[in-house]
Amino acid sequence: MRKALLIIAAASIALVAVSCRNRCNCNCGCDKCTCAKSDAAATTAAPAPAEDALAYTIVENPQSDISNLPVDKDGYITIFDGKTLNGWRCYGKDAAGSDWNVDDGAIHLKGSGNGEGGGVNGGDLIFSHKFKNFELTFEYKISKGGNSGVFYLAQEVKNGKGEFIPIWQSASEYQVLDNENHPDAQLGVDGNRQSASLYDMIPAKPQNAKPFGEWNKAKIMVFEGTVIHGQNGQNVVEYHLWTPKWKEMLDNSKFKADGDYPIAYQLLLNMGGENHEGYIGFQDHGDDVWYRNIKVKILK
User: Can you tell me the distance from the alpha carbon of 85 to that of 81, in angstroms, rounded to the nearest whole number?
Assistant: First the structure.
């Protein structure tokens, strides 16, 4: 009987040894447990570094020479000649998409119907010259149920993956909207997504936009951080960049630091970058929109 027990014990030791050599996570502690060693190495290996969600690069592209553009008696430079898209290109590209065209003296976006960023041949249109202190005047007309916007002090920015982020993450937006027929007019706070508002931040008051299909006169003035939006002859928004109040506004908006757009928060805190200058742009939100009589006066 004793001999039988010894044989069984020896067989059990042999089985443990075989198991140790062939079964992972055996934790038997023997010298030849290669699987345990590989498991330990796997658990202590440093994880692959994650992409820095805050990394970005401002892309500096060649700018248009505006010295030869026509200037009226009041000092306003015509940046759209009413016939061509000379000086204009799409954000992140070297030319305007074919959905942008000239229609009866106006820049016209042929809407894709696919919403913001959904057009294959569109994209946000920018004038390829950066402005610092300026007054921009223009007229706009929106289609029924249409949505667009005018960006200013915008930058062309790539994220850590080398992809262009949307233009609105670096710039303020003068909202252009059919207030009566687009649902965005009822969203936001106190009408701050209606026409001429500082989008999602300050409502335009009084709200004096004309109905879809009619021309509106608009103005954006930027001077040493003071910004004014005008619509149809009245100043409807005023705010001040690079101030504690501006930071407070960002902290309470969708651009807040711990929100979905952390790069936007950094860019907007110091909007316009080191030189506080940037591009003027028209938004492709997938709807037909027209812009004309586009002029800029440089403020000293």
Answer: 8
Which tokens sit at 296? 């800029």
Structural domains in the chain, CATH included, are 2-44 (no CATH), 56-298 (2.60.120.560)
Residue 53 has a pLDDT of 80
Q: Angle at which helices 244-251 and 262-269 pack, to 10 degrees?
A: 160
Q: Which residues of the chain register pLDDT less than 70?
A: 1-51, 117-118
CA distance 76 to 32: 84
- pTM for this one? 0.82
Show the CA angle centred on residue 206, arms to residues 244 and 77, nearest 5°: 75
- Distance in angstroms (rounded) separating the CA atoms of residues 170 and 241: 13
